Write the structure tokens for this entry.
Amino acid sequence: MTDVILNDIFVGKVENPKEFVDSIRAQRRENKLPNVLSVMYDNSYDEVHVSTTRGRAMRPLIVVKDKKPLLAEAHIKKLQNNEINWSNLVSEGVIEYLDATEEENALVALREEDLTEDHTHLEISPILLLGITSSLVPYGNYTNPVRLEMGTKVSKQSLGLYAANYLIRIDTDSSILHYPQIPILNSFVYDTVNGNKHPSGQNLVIAVMSYEGYNMEDAIIINKGSIDRGIGRSTYFIPTVAEELRYSGGLVDEIGLVDKEVKGYRTEEEYKHLEKDGVVYSEAQLKSDDAIIGKTSPPRFLGEVEEFSIVASTRREASSIVKHGEEGVVDMVILTENEEGNKLAQVRLRSQRIPEVGDKFASRHGQKGVIGLIVPEADMPFTSSGVKPDLIFSPHSIPPRMTVNHLLEVIAGKAGALAGEYIDGTSFEATKEQTIRENLLALGFKENGTETMYNGITGNKFKVQIYIGNMYYFKLSHMVTNKLHARASGRIQLLTRQPIEGRAKGGGLRLGEMEKDCLVAHGASLLLKERFDSDKVVLYVCENCGMLAVNDSFRNRQFCTRCGSGVEITPIEMSYAFKLLLDEIKSLGIYPKIKLTSKY
């Protein structure tokens, strides 16, 4: 007898498990049982599992009987004439939903011609192997699966028109591409998800070649003339929100001009853009540390201060300011109330971002890279017909990654641009490469996508043919302006006396073990002296007992708290973090003895 388990609970036994499973499936296909029910016979444990639980991922498949799919031509014609719909196919048992457990007992064919006697189901379309985002990648079946996944990741980071009503929204970390375009090479899924209403890239002319070594290791080279004409330009929006919070005891925050008596008052220069209501005006040009919304808060610790006391009336500064390293123009100011009826001020800054060295771009095939050089248009290589590429891509990025679809898009985009038509690049069902080659020949170009090109600086003809065509490129949200990080001396942590962490707070950059090795390998090991003494401290050590001694600079004498005066006491440099470790060890009752030896 075989155990039957319904939703992980034992409910009984059956004699013939395979017949039992077949009968349940037959009844489900006849619509006598719910189509979300799944049944599976586990041969290794001799158990039948029946599931009806929520939250299971289920996918539709065409049922196969005797090497023939149940979905016939008659069904397809009726679907096209709107005589039947998807639900009818499911209720008739032509299509059924399988979850992960039931797939264990199923053998699914990718195409109808692959069907054998053992097959139980047929994929509706091979593209259903992919998710929505990965099915947007053209010629997705011609690439490495890892790169396909990377292609889906970069498309999520691309800039475009994320929402048509962006002007009346306050979104964090949002950017708008100024001239987004619809791709020439497309998947049918693009239209299904309304991609035309939210484009997120631009069709560029790309040449696959090296140029002065500036596009090594995934870097790309961009034509300055193309940037001047608007390629990759975007606007970055920075939102700021301030509200009047209410505290216990009837104390409230106040949005308004900050009085000079307030604790923590900044310089007048920083408040100069604020109007009478304490909020900045539209189209004001702000830079780092400028106040956006003036606000004061009640004192943090009241204690037992009396009403008429001077201290009680002292408020503290709590204005919203432009973060370090940011700047922009005030785009929108909103004055409203929150759910509790408190005053709420929202200000949005905008900052135009023109592509610069270090900005990140990517194709839909996971070939991402940063700008390594921006070349004047006069120096760009050109074809015999005078076409100059917008972008130069390194040929070394293709062979190790096996992104054949990247190369296919170049010629498909070229053929589509020349003919003035969109080309279908849906995975598994795309326009054949041979068709694209024939179209290029008919248009008067070489079928392999190469052209004779000339050096823009010398005018000499290149000895090799250059692969050139059109490609859809994304500008990604990783812009060098948002990541630029540098500091001299600044704020430090109280405990370790090391620089604080975080770019926004003006913190330091940690130099690790590997970075240290790089400096040593470059022969710049003396630089480590400067890098590694961010928490340098000079301490006096007693050479007799090895403990830290006292340096009384006022009386100009040194002595050891353990050995007294008259012993050899030497000043040494050490990291404050190490001194902290010594203190921690001493607090555990362990005696950390420092033994000094001569440097010379």
